[in-house]
Amino acid sequence: MGAKLQVGVLGFGTVGSGVIHILEEHQEKISQVTGYDIAVKKVLVRDVEKARRYETNGFTLTTEPQDVLEDPEIAVIVEVMGSITTAREYILQALRAGKHVVTANKDLIALHGDELVAVAQENKCDLFYEASVAGGIPILRTIVNSLAADKIQKVMGIVNGTTNFMLTKMTEEKKTYEEALEEAQALGFAEADPTSDVDGIDAARKMVIMTRLAFGMNVQLDDVETNGIRTINKEDIEVAYQLGYKIKLVGTAEETNGSVNVNVGPVLLPRSHPLSGVNYENNAVFVTGAAVGETMFYGPGAGELPTATSVVSDLITVAKNSKLGTNGNAFNSYRHETKHTSKEQIFSKHYLRLTMVDKTGTFLKLTQIFAEAGVGFDKILQEPVDDFTASVVIVTHATSKAQLEQATKRVEEEPEMQIFTNYLVVEG
Ligand code: NAP
Ligand code: HSE
Predict the structure, then answer these.
(1) By alpha-carbon position, which residue is closest to atom 8 of ligand 2?
(2) Interval 231-260: pLDDT, tens
(3) What does 159-207 look like in DSSP terms, one character per residue?
(4) pLDDT single digits (tens) 71-121
(5) I want to staple 128 with a disulfide (CB 3.0 to 4.6 A). Which of 55, 132, 314, 421 is the partner?
(6) Residue 251: which CATH number?
(7) Residues spanned by the domain of 143
(8) Against a cut of 0.85, is the pTM above it?
């Protein structure tokens, strides 16, 4: 056995339990790799009486945060309790006391990452957060280390397991939105309040973190145009399928001439696209680099052991840094001026579903509106809804966001027309 590296864990829920289990199960390998016996000394919980999934021998359970944060023997804090305000406060205290920090908290890193990184640097501490994006997929270190030599052009991710599970159930098993959500909650993928999952916020936070690492730009959550899956209905799923697509909640960060555009929302993916085959709670991140071309990283985006593997990999990096005396370097040191791509420079195909009054001349008016905005049609489907109304589906040619907004704004002014769905379409 090597020297001891003592760890304080904040939280003993899904991820905390996994961390404790993996450190115990893989102790010998971890010790060989790091030269340290990484040992959990104290674990912070809300309720010490609660039944736990694993034995609590070998460490102390406490409800008093200062027992952990002020313990001079604890060199590393693992924050897996969630929340923003309290977790931020505890992490800042730990860093100021010279303790290294590992966290799985994407909400906190997306919102307060800058501040935490600065405090970690001031105190020469490590701050790692591999588990905050895509659970068990080691995507952050891949972007920061393995792809460091390349110029990343685009990152597309299915990074929310709950919504991917729901959309798979709705597409493959014809489940309703409500049935699919209930199942995702019962299986434990959804956040305590699933709003952040279904409204795309969880995915947007993960995209903010990946964008900062991939492009060096300090994007904020407000910079991400975010849409969720509440509006996706059976009709869109079926029509998209007939047209050769699957609907998935995808986060995209794309660089164009030194600026970046980040968005999260339902997109139509060609059924042959590698991301279309990512089903149920799995996640995948599709990275395009100027030199490497297209790469995809796939795996479980949540869950006890997959997420804990990422947390423990961070702990191993802290231990290795401690051995070499190289703690305190930022997880990502790549920086680039933050610039946002203008609407005129963001190009995509779009899928639109609208209803319109079924009378002579209305369709002509619709085509005129799109032609005036310079938006061309790639595909059009029209079906009668009843004697007076028609349902129209349009897939546009690649068009700028500015042009599409001009056309849809004009359509919305027409009393005979109403747009229900407007999703991006991925090509290729
Ligand atoms: P969880 O199952 O709800 O566990 C939270 C743990 O933290 C519980 O043990 C709870 O204590 C403790 N806790 C919460 N607030 C506390 C407080 N104020 N004081 C003391 N203890 C407190 O959560 P989780 O699913 O493990 O998630 C933890 C973090 O990992 C979150 O930031 C989450 O976003 C992130 N994450 C989770 C997953 C996943 O698959 N679950 C994947 C990636 C990232 P009690 O047990 O006594 O109630
Ligand atoms: N609620 C999240 C998801 C958990 O469904 O992906 C993992 O971050």
Answers:
(1) 302
(2) 999 999 999 999 999 999 999 999 999 999
(3) --HHHHHHHHHHHHS---HHHHHHHHHHTT-S-SSTHHHHTSHHHHHHH
(4) 999 999 999 999 999 999 999 999 999 999 999 999 999 999 999 999 999
(5) 314
(6) 3.30.360.10
(7) 137-298
(8) yes
